[in-house]
Structure formats: structure tokens, C-alpha cells
Amino acid sequence: MTRETEIAGRGANLAASAASTTPSTSRHLSHLALFCERQDPEFSKIFEVVNALPLDDTHCHLVTDRDAITTPQRYLERISLAGMPFPNYFPVGVYDSWLTGDEATRHDLDKTYGIQAKVDEMTYHLSQSIFIKFLTKELAQFLDCEPTFEAVIEARNDRGQDYWSYVNSLFRDVNLENIMLDTGYHESCGRPAIEKFEEAILPCRTHRIARIEAIQHEFFGMDISFDEFEGLYSERLLEVMDGEGNFGKKSVGMKSYLLPLIGLIEPLYDRTLAAKSWEAMRKSYAVLPFMERQAAFNISKDLRRYTFTLALEECLRRDMPMQIHTGDGEAPDVILRNQDPFYLEEVVRFDKDNTMRMPKIIPLHAGYPSVGKAAWLSHLYPNCYFELSVMTPFVHQSLYERYKQVMEAVPLSKILFASDNYHVPELFWLAGRWGKRYLAKALTDHVVGGSLTFDEAIEAARMVLHKNNRAVYNLSDV
Ligand SMILES: [Zn+2]
To answer: What topology is assigned to 31-67+163-472 in CATH?
Structure first.
């Protein structure tokens, strides 16, 4: 068997191999009963309370109806961090043409670029992750079907006939009350899709976060002077923060994606340097795609530092938090080595005129895999928070140990629950389900060990799961 046919064969057998085919006899038991029966009594007491608590998701993205009906392979691709930027493994436009093209087009593109074999390989390996095997069992319980990946996708497709009510039922099941939606990633679907999603998840409330790079994107390609650019950028920034510039609504926080592009972020106030960088960027457009990626980002580095600084000044003025993408990484687009949480120290300090101004900073994704560094930054600087997404839900059972690691350094008042949900709504649900379960398990250790009373443990869960989110964003309407 050649490597190609071996991989293709794996793809075809994907559904069968994604999970155990042994039917569970206990899937009709309630989630609570099923989980508690295996645990000690102290845990059961804590879990019962924690599992019922309201949930706020401090960082997440839009769900559209394009995944309402799916296939096992496509579902794996859409839920995978490796699969998310799949089009970027091929020349611009090739992957989308392959995905949506007729049979002849698909055949030709596949012959030239070997697309199917790459998709097969990626999804095969993902299907062999414990994350997917565990997800299969959990979703089988929720959908009341056999615990095989194929059966789960089939049952999900049934619910996909009325997709928005399915999405809503996932939200209700984990008691989501507020989400902070980063509108910077919306799969080019824009305002109608955002509004549709927000309506579908009611009574869960949505609060919007705007992304600096989305504002830059509007103006970076324009043939204008730096002065004109700065004027337009500043005007849009205020509209997004104070007006209705975030797809028809105001924002309660900002988000930056700068760290993966340049690494260490040092605030920049010097307009002259920013203007030089603007000119250099405009001159480089023709050669940028052919440059080594770090060198390409470095051309606009000062411009990006400057625009980031302008935005952070406005956040500080409004006591508005800035979320900053940290850890994680959407290979092959971003530069993994740049995403070290310690590269945020100068931003957390935000020194000017010999004074530390200390705006509210939320490093995202638990700094994963550098969880300890993100936790330590948050331990040292009172204005630096700690957000749990990506690690939640992707490390599944190990969340128990990770939450203990986070709580050993980060004050309980600064830990924020989040899912980073994108594409498929099950990430909201899994993050909520596993987040509550393993947080309860980690807190039980503290109660048993004597470091927290039962009441203190429950209050800790309330803070992590919703209270801290409402405090950091000054949400007065909840
Ligand atoms: Zn995100």
C-alpha cells in the first residue's frame, strides 16, 4: 500500500475508528448521577452545586448554520485547531475551489495539490485523539445515541434540521448566561449572521468585543498618507468603542492579535517611527507574499505597535479590558515562538512618563501550553487576568490538574472561564460541561486538604464561572 492509499484508507475508516463501538448500558442515566456515582461524597456535594451555576464565557466566536449538517470528516476538520486554517496549506483560493467545486474541478485540483490525502491525514490523526474519543461519549449521552463518532454525527444531523434550537439546547444545558463575542472572526458572514446567532442563543446575553486587526484591515490597503490613516483609524476606534461600530453595537472590550505576529510587544508613542513603518509597508505589498514571514511582519511592526498603543490608551481611559491572543496558535499562519506570555509584561505595565499605568489585560488561551508563565504574570501584576479557553476544553480530563496549577498562583478573583468556541457549538457545551466538572474536582482537593471551606470553594466557582467576568467588563445590566 502506498502512503497515499494508506492515508485514504484511514479516511474512509474514520467513523469506525473514532470511538469504541461498544454500546454503553449507562447512557440513560443523568449526567450528574453518572458522574457522581464514581466519585467521593465531598466531590458529589461540591459538583452538584457547581454544575448548576450560571456560566459566562469571556472569549468566544460566532456559530453560523454552515455546520448544521455535516460529515464525520468535515466535523473533525472544523473542530480542529490544526484544521481551522486548512485553506492556508494551499495557494490562495485552491482549497475553497476544491471544497465547493464540481467533480471534475475537485479531481483536477486534487491531482495537482494532493488535497484529499492531506485532509485524510489530518482528520485521521485527530480522530485518534482522546479529545475526540471523549467528546464522542459525552455527545452520545446528550443526543441519546450509540457512543460511536458516526452515530453522534448522524444524531447531530437529525438535530441539524432545526439547528438553532439544537444550539440553544446546548447553551441551556450548561446554563450559559453571558458570552463575550470576539467579532474579529466571523467567517466573512458579517452582521446578519452575528445577529442571527445572538438571537438564537437567547436568553443568554451577548456582549461584543472588537478586534484591532479588523479595524486596521479596513485601512491598511488604502493609498493614503500616514496622517490620513491615523485619522481614519482613530475615528473608527472610537466608533467601535463608544458608538455602534461593532456590527451595529458598541463594544465592552478590545482584542489584539499582535503577539503572534511580532513577539515582545513594547508600546510605541513615536509617530515618526509609525509613519516610516506605514510607508515601508505600502512599498512592500508586491514582495510581502514572497518574504520570510517574520521579516514580512517586521515591516509593519512599528505601525502595529503604535496602533495597538492608541487602542490601549482608549481602553485605559474607559476601564475597558484588552484581550490579547497568547499561547495556542493557528499554524501555519502565525509564529508559535512569538506567543510567550512573558512578552506581554511591557503591555501590562504600560509605562509612560516614569509611571506604570496598568490597564486591564486579559492574556487569552491560558497562555497554553505556557500555562505556568501566564499564571505567574497574573500573580505578579494585579491588573493582569487569567483566561481559561483553548486549554478548556481541549485538555479534557487533565483540566483537573491544570486548574490546580492555575489556582496555585492566580488569585481566584482573576480567573475567567472561556471556551474560545469557533465554528461548531459543541465547544461551548464541552467547555461548560468539563469546565464545571474539573473545577469542582480541583476545588474538592482544597476542601479535603483544608485550604478552603465548602462555602469558600463554592464562592470560588461562582467567581471563576461568572462573577469575575461581570466585574472585569463592568457589566451593569446583569
Ligand atoms: Zn479566539
So the answer is: TIM Barrel (3.20.20)
